[in-house]
Amino acid sequence: MSSLRTLSTLLLLPLAGCLSMEEPTQSIRSGVFGQAPSGEDIHWYELRNSNGMIARVHNWGATLYELHIPSAGGRIADVVLGFDDMEGYLSGDNQYFGCTAGRYANRIANGRFSIGDNEYQLATNNDPNHLHGGARGLDKVIWSAASSGMDSVSFSYTSPDGDEGYPGEVSIVVSYTLTEADVLVIEYEAETTAPTHLNLTHHSYFNLSGAGSDTVLDHELQLFASRYTPTDDTLIPTGETGPISGTPLDFRTPTALRGGAEALASSAALGIDHNFLIEGAQGALRTAAYLHDPVSRRSMTVHTTEPGLQVYTGNFLFGQTGKGGKTYAHRSAVCLETQHYPDSPNHLGFPTTLLLPGETYTHHTEYRFAW
Ligand code: GLA
User: How many alpha carbons fall within 13 Å on the CB side of residue 350?
Assistant: First the structure.
C-alpha cells in the first residue's frame, strides 16, 4: 500500500483557486471547465514546455482534451479529438475521447469472470459484452486533481467495491507529465482491497495533421509486434494468438493505415480495431508503435510497459462535432491504447490482469513527439 499512499500524500495541493492565471511560467494554469451532472465544478489544468507543446487535461474521466504540437513549418496543431465543453463530454458524441478507460479497458466477454469460486457479472454496455468499465466507467466520474511540480498533474479516484460489478475497492492514481524532451508521460498506480481484475488505458484519438482533418488513412504506422489476438464477431479474442504476417494487420514496417482499414471495412470491427502483442518483456519500457503523418511531418512513438496495444482507426466515428466546430469523420483519428489483451480474465494463456490486495498495479506509457 505504501507507494500509493505516499503518492497521494504528496498530491494534496488542490490546484483550483490557489493558482495565478497571471503567472503561467510560475504555476500550472488552471480554471473551471464546466459542471458535472452533480453540479460540481470540473477543472482544467495546463502543461506547457519551452518547445511550444501544450497539453490540457480535466478531471472528468482524467481526460486529455487538448494536445498542441508544433510542426517543422512553424504551425501548431491540436492533435487529439475532444470537446470544448462538458455538454460534449456528457453527450452521446463522446466515444471515450482522451479519457482514462477502466476498470477494464476493452472488452470482457458477456461481462463475466471468475476469481476462485466467486463469479462476477459486470455491466454489459456493449451488447453482449462489457466495454471500458461499464455504463459508468472511470471516464464518467470526477477525479481529484493535484499537482506535482510544474510539469505534472495527477488525478486520483477510489472506485467502490461492487462498482459496475467489480469486486474490491480500488484506489487509482493517474498522472500526466509533459517533458522538455516533448514526451507526454502517463503513469498509473492502483491498489485493491479484494482480488479483482484491472486494465487501465489512455483513450486519445490522434490525428497528427490536427483534430478534424479528413482521415488518418495516409498516416503511416509501424508496430513493434508480429502477433495479434484474433477475435470473434463481437470483438472478443478467440484465445489464440496469430501472426500478422500475411494479414491486413502487418505493420512491421511503416505502412499507411489505408490498406488495412479498407481491407477490414466489412469485418465486425469495420476497420482496424485489434490488439497486438508488443515485443519484449512486459514491465520493461519498450517501443510499441511509431506513427508518422507525411502531410504535417509530425510523428509520435509510443512506449509502454504493457503487454498489448489496441489499434483502433476510429471506425465508429460518425461525423460528430468537436472542438472549434470541427467535424470528426469516420476514420479521422487513430487510437493507440496501451493495455493488456481484451478479455484476459477469461483466457489463462494471456498475461494476467488479476490484482491482489497488497500488490500495486503499475503502468507507464509515453507518447514521444517529433516534428
Ligand atoms: C475501443 C474499442 C473500440 C471502440 C472504441 C470506442 O478502442 O476497441 O471497439 O469501442 O473503444 O468507441
Answer: 29
